[in-house]
Structure formats: C-alpha cells, structure tokens
Amino acid sequence: MKKAFLSLGLLAGISVAAQAQTARFGIKAGASLSSWTGSDAGTTATKLGFHAGLVANFGLNEMISIQPELLYSMKGGQDDTNSNNRVNLNYIDVPILAKVATGATGLFFELGPQVGFLASATNKTSSSSTDVKNSFKGADFGYAAGVGFQVASGPMVGLRYNGGFTNVVKDITIANTTKQTNLKNSAFQLYLGYMFGGK
Known about the structure:
The protein is mainly β. It is built from 1 helix and 11 strands, in the order αβββββββββββ.
C-alpha cells in the first residue's frame, strides 16, 4: 500500500511538472547525519556522510513549484560505543517535492515522496570491509521534508529530513518462519546549492 501510494505520488509529480510555467535546473551538495529508526535499531549512533546531485524546479505559479532531484546519498549507522564499526548504505535517491515559497524573504518549505535505489552496502570495522549488499533491499521508499532559503539569483541553503517507510533489511525465512527486521533509514541533510537561470 505504501509503495503504491509513493508510486502514485511520483507519477503525479511528473505529470504536474509537465504543466509547469517555468523551469530551472541546478546542483546541490552537503553533509548528512544518518542513523536508523525502528524497534530493531537499538542504540545505533548517527554517522556522518555527504550527499550531492542535480535539481530541477518546475514553477506552477509564484509560490508553488515541483522539484524532482537525483542525488547520491550516504546513509547507514554506526556502533554507539565504537565509531570504527559501521554500516555504510549508499543510495541514488529520487525525491519529488512540492515546494512552497513564502515571498520576497526567500524562505521556502518542501515536502514529498522519495525512492532510493541501493548502490552499495558495506559493513566496516577498524580492520576489514565486507560487502553486505545482498542483505539489504534494493529500493527504499520514504519521504523528505525540509526548510530553506533561496535567493532569486540562484544560491540556496536548506535543511532536510529523510524518513523511511519501508524496512531496509531483507526478510529472512527460517523453517517456514519469516523474520522482519524493523529498521528504517533516517537522515538529516544540510546543503548548499545553486539554481541556474536566476534573475
């Protein structure tokens, strides 16, 4: 049900963008603090990473626009007692956000669905690195919500939260019993960006 809802949201965003009055394109990059939520997250600590990618913005009117993005995002978590023990999950994230500008101040709010495609997954310790991609699901469905400032000439800064709807670990079936690990992505992202074609 959640996947169907998110898929409809993505299709609706694409359809609305096709009717846009204006279009601008840009780039963005920044730092991420990621961890996990869910009953199986335990005391996992936040992990520092980064994200970067491309942005498109399709204006419907002076206040409302649709903003799809294509981002490389580092997520995962680490041991709260030993930062050398961590799981690195790297995604290609595709959020499609409704963006609301408040006027001349440059303040904006954004909210929308997001799907992430797992590019790599490694379990790292102080002495080894193990590929664990087969233990994680290939797609992560979730949402993004944020706030920021954008200057009409192009520069912008923002703070965004990424939350997961679906568990990231694959289900395990043992003796006709399926175990579901309740573990979802969670990340705060602080970014700088620039939209081309400004005034």
